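Case study: Substrate import-associated zinc metallohydrolase lipoprotein.
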Amino acid sequence: MKKNLIYLLFSVTLLCAALTACSDNDDLDSTSVVRPTTTEQNDLDRWLKRNYVETYNIQLKYRFEDIESSMGYYLTPASYKQSVAMAKLVRHMCLEAYDEITGSTDFIKAYFPKILFLVGSYAYKTNGAMVLGTAEAGAKITLYNLDNLNPKTVNAKTAYFKTIHHEFGHILNQTKPYPTDFAEISGPDYVQDQCFEIYKTTESALQKGFISPYASKADSEDFVELIALYVNRSAEEWEEMLTTAGDTGRPKIEAKFEIVSNYMKSTWNIDLNELREIVLRRAEEAPNLDFDSLDDEDTDTPENSGTNE
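Here is what the predicted structure looks like once written out:
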């Protein structure tokens, strides 16, 4: 009993000492010792501020940030040189293509994802599949494998730009839904995550009425795959795909594309034939862009790019 009383008195003494200590330090310095990391701005940062942030309200992030990266992959940062090239390519081949057809930067500013994140390496899934791009809830697009980007050999079908048109298509039809009868054309044939197991070739998907194996995942993916692949293919290449689709697949693809085309025109006032012409022309121009300097002489605007009135 005596021992317990000693312990109790000792505890009370410690509590009083702690309270006194708190009282003695009431005027602690209010400045936090945790300071945000500051990064010195370079030429690319200043170029991005002018051409992405101020023009489109888009952040293009090329420095490696854990908060932007997926912890499920082993990733490496994009190099400065490759980031410069991709920033110019995305602007020329994607953003300015929509500026040209809509007549201003307002369309991209209003609807395009607010963050583009660049990664140097591929992202590998556990099954060995490589991820070229991902999108998050219409807010961010991540582009991988910049290490292997050759800006002098890009074309309209280069995967990065098809990915951007695909993901942007999602944002548009999530903002304003497409007609429900689209899903009815191939309704029973959508296979969810088994799309690449069932359709191992583009030919097999085409003959079932899907423009790509991934289009067979769900009607929402089918819809935007039709947009992305149409604007990145010439009329001859598109016809070749429909010919491969044959008597079974071709009518389904044509019926679905008619809904897609009408939706884009009536809802967004975008003619996919015109957009395709713009995208293909800009893709031909892209390898000739100046990837070394960061002046704004090659900046395109709706006023000087042949925009429709």
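For the exam, be able to explain this: Residues 235-268 form the longest helix (34 residues).
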